[in-house]
Amino acid sequence: MISVEDWAEIRRLRRAEQMPIKAIARRLRISRNAVRRALAKDSPPRYERPARGSCVDAVEPAIIELLRSCPTMPATVIAERIGWARSLTVLKDRVRLLRPLYLPPDPATRTAYVAGDRVQCDLWFPPVDIALGFGQVGRPPVLVMAAGYSRMLFAVMIASRQAADLIAGHWLLLSEHLHAVPRQLVWDNESAVGSWRAGTPRLTEEFDAFRGILGCGVHQCRPRDPEAKGIVERANQYLETSFLPGRTFTGPRDFNAQLHAWLPVANTRIVRRIGCAPTVRWPVDQAAMLPLPPVAPVLGWRHQLRLGRDHYVRVAGNDYSVDPVAVGRTVQVFAGLDTVTVTLAGRPVATHERCWARHQSITDPEHHTAALAMARAATHRPAPPTQQGVEQRDLSVYDTAFGITDGYEAGPPPSIGTIDGSIDGQVA
Q1: Confidence of residue 402 (pLDDT cuts 50, 70, 90)
Q2: What is the rounded CA–CA span in Å between residue 312 and residue 383?
Q3: What is the CA radius of gyration of the chain?
Q4: 259 and 156 in contact (C-beta within 8 Å)?
Q5: What's the CA gap between 272 and 108, in Å, rounded?
Q6: Would the CA dihedral through 345, 349, 353, 356 be positive or negative?
Q7: Handedness of CA 227, 232, 238, 239 (dihedral sign)
Q8: Could you report the per-residue pLDDT of 111-162, keeping only the tens digit for each?
Q9: Which secondary-structure segment (H or E) carries 210?
Q10: Closest CA to 271 of 235, 244, 229
Q11: What pTM value is reported for the model?
C-alpha cells in the first residue's frame, strides 16, 4: 500500500506534467500497477482493518434487557447480574454506547446574556492549605461571582460557608467591587442559599431577606446541572490554573490581598466567547444593573445574651473575652468577616480580630487584668457586723415568780402583770 505522499505525487505527475505511467513508476520506484491503482482512487489511501467480533457481543442482549428495565444501572452491577468474569473495561465501553438508547435526552441549551441581567455565583475551595493561626491549617471557601454579559470576575475568601459569612461576602463584593446589584443572582443548591424540595426551589430565610433588601431575584439551578452556571465553573478552573501556581500564602488576609491584586489583570484577558476583554464590556454591564440599596442589609453574626461570670462570648466555635464590667448584664454581639464586637447599651466593651481557626479562646490582656482585680476585690470585702447576743434569763426567776419550789406551790404568787394588762387582779 502506497503512502498518501506518493498518492498525491502520482496524481501531480500525471495531471500536471503528463508523465506516462512507466516513467512515474520508475521515478517513485513503485510498480506500474500501484500507479494505476493510485490514479483510479479519488481519495487518499487509508488503512482499514476489518472489524472483529468482541467478547461482549454474546452478552449484549442481556445488557439491553437490564438497561431497558433500569437505564441508570451502573456497569459494575450489570457485570454482577450477567456473571461477567472478563475485563470490566470492554464491558463499560459497550454499556456506555448502549445506555443513551434508553435514557431520555437531556440537552444543555446555550444561554444568551443581556447587560446587567445575571451574575453567576459559586464557592471555590482552593486546593492549598491556608494557615489559620494557632497551628491550624484549612481550606476556607472563596466566593466567586462572574458576570454573564461582560464575564467580569470577582472573588473573596470568606471564613465559612454558613449564611452569615456568605451574605457578608456577597455584600462586600457588591458594595466595594461591583458598585451595583445584578437583576438576578444564579446559584446552585448551596445549603446557605436554598434547595429544591418536591421539585420546587426554595431559598433559606436569611438569603430570602437578603435578596429582598437588594431588590433582585435569585435563580436556583436544578440539582446535578453544572452546565447551568458554566461561566462561574470555568472561572473556578481558571483561578486554580492561573492564580494558584507558584504562590504561597501566610493566611486568609494575605490570600485576599494577592487575589485582589491579580483580578484586575485577569479581567483584561481576551475571552474567546465574547471576543474581547471583560473590562471592555463591563461599563455597559454595570450601567444596566440596579443601584445599591439605600440601606445596607443586616450582616454577620448577631445575637444578644446575658454575660456570665466567665465574661466570654462564643462566635463560630471560638470564645472572645469581654470587659468584666458587663458581667450579669445583657450584651449585643456582632461578628463580621474581619472583626468581633460586643456592646453594652451601645458602648463597645470588646473588639477582637476575627479568628478563622476553631476551638480557640481569644483573650484581651486588659480584660484579663480587670477580671483579676475584680476577683481580688471580691475576696477581700469586710465581713458583715455580727449581731448582738440576746440576754437569756435564768428559769429559776420564773419559778420564784410563780411560787413554785421543787414542783410545789409555796404560796400566792407575787404581783406580776397579767396578759390583759392588769396587776394583782386590778386593771391598770
Answers
A1: confident
A2: 30
A3: 44
A4: yes
A5: 20
A6: negative
A7: negative
A8: 789 999 999 999 999 999 999 999 999 999 999 999 999 999 999 999 999 9
A9: helix 205-214
A10: 235
A11: 0.68
